[in-house]
């Protein structure tokens, strides 16, 4: 047997030697001649070239155009050369900041299949274009001409938003030039992207300027606390860490309309229009200025880390959950997003406090949150650690074997038939003076404030106040019904949900889903109507026959009317899909507005909650872009969660209709995604 193997190996070796062709044994002689004369170019140009290539002995492989700034390869174009002859291409001349006119090296490199190379080198004089003008493109799609005020410097003055998001683009500087764009990445302006730069000032009108040589831009308002500049976290948030004691005065500078910002009474007292007095116990704190929601959040720190509750009762207690948020529970709810956890104020040793207003910072009719030892998952106040003398709230005591009151251990909910008074001021305290495992929770009403009221009528019925921002009506609607809206002064600017309504030229709405009972909620912050299917007095659930309702819960990058109102895996913000025909449900999402273009993560439920979810065993799709996660190893989506296929993306600003077909049964759901 061994001899037989040796014979076979010997024969294979002989065959392998004879497999080499004559070409394999030659080095070849690649020849390259440029038809293009290279003299000068501008940064940002696409430089065209044509070359003649040949090798009489060995087939060619590639011709490369390579551009070097000093010794650095900055651009390259590769062309496959199947046969001898002429080949044309373009090489991009990069446009970088702070690089003056100079001489670059252009190399043309011809290679055959045996890696024999011929190379030619040319000096290329490169210069920086001095554009006649630039264009500022705002987030709203407006374009403003930026005139040249001196070499490389451009500016425009207008009544911009105090925080104006925009990118900048150039015209083509030559016949070989390109339109260049400048956007923001990781806090730095770079060329080649259109991610918005947030220009800011404290008064308007103001001037936006940009230098195409240095990439310096302005204005960017500086935000100061007692003369010290706050650090930028993102476009909307700036923060500073400092040690504070009760009674310390804090002077804020640079904030537009600071006097009208929402004041967190657990942490501050107002001294004057720009100065606040600190209230809680002494310690290290992080103060974050939220420009979007116009309020200051305060978090207890332990050095550079967030404080945690210690065995002796010092440190911090945090709130995570639904139905609570600052400065508004409807527009900035915490949800089950740990990054948004609320830090309670240390009012005295072992006592932590948060003050809320019914219908404003706490949902008047529904809450579901709990207390944690840290800003994140970990140690939590289960029912074995916390109790309450209050009768209007309930602490969940459900055990692992589903014994108890049916509420997750430690979760705080309203007792049956209980609610908070709209405008009622409630002080919530957690007292750990008898030990961190013997905490006492109290809710105490200390006063009332008058909430703003809206007198609006929907289809002739007066809308009932849910909280300071939301008003509802519950009634039957028929498909195709024309609905009047009265009492909303800026109604022409409201966002109209295309799954539930079309808007007529006379301002009326036409109802689109199937006949049924619905709750319509007017949200006066986001300026839109949220529509939810009802079953009697309760929110509808999906029935075994496929009728009822289908709901969407997902991350913060899906929401109506925009992603700014993202769901954040908060069930109370679940989106109700429109049942447009029996057992057919849909939601329309605009990529880049209601949903991200390159990443989605949401799923379908048969109720406005965590039950009756659609996993991969119940839902399928053949869509080219969207897939249904399996939860298997290597799949970054849990079972039933939707994701974007690798290398795919939704087209920005295109509307996509996500439809779920249950006509084949609730366990055989089919998802289709259609560009509208």
Count every helix, treating DSSP H or I runs of 4 or more residues as helices.
1
N-to-C CA distance: 70 Å
Q: Percent helix among the residues?
A: under 10%
The total count of strands amounts to 59
* Class from secondary-structure proportions: mainly beta
Low-confidence blocks of residues? 1-20
The main sheet comes to:
9 strands, antiparallel
Shape: globular
Overall pLDDT confidence: 92
The gyration radius over C-alpha positions equals 32 Å
Instruction: Work out the oligomeric state of the chains in this entry.
Output: single chain
Taken as a percent bin, the fraction of beta residues is 35-45%
Jot down its keywords.
mainly beta; 676 residues; 3% helix; five-stranded mixed beta sheet; disordered N terminus; single chain; 59 strands
Overview of the structural elements:
The protein is mainly β. The chain has 1 helix and 59 strands. Strands 9, 10, 11, 12, 13, 14, 15, 16 and 17 form a 9-stranded antiparallel beta sheet that branches. A 5-stranded mixed beta sheet has the order 2-8-7-4-5, with no helix packed on it. Strands 19-18-22-24-23 form a 5-stranded antiparallel beta sheet, with no helix packed on it. A hairpin with a 2-residue loop joins strand 10 and strand 11.
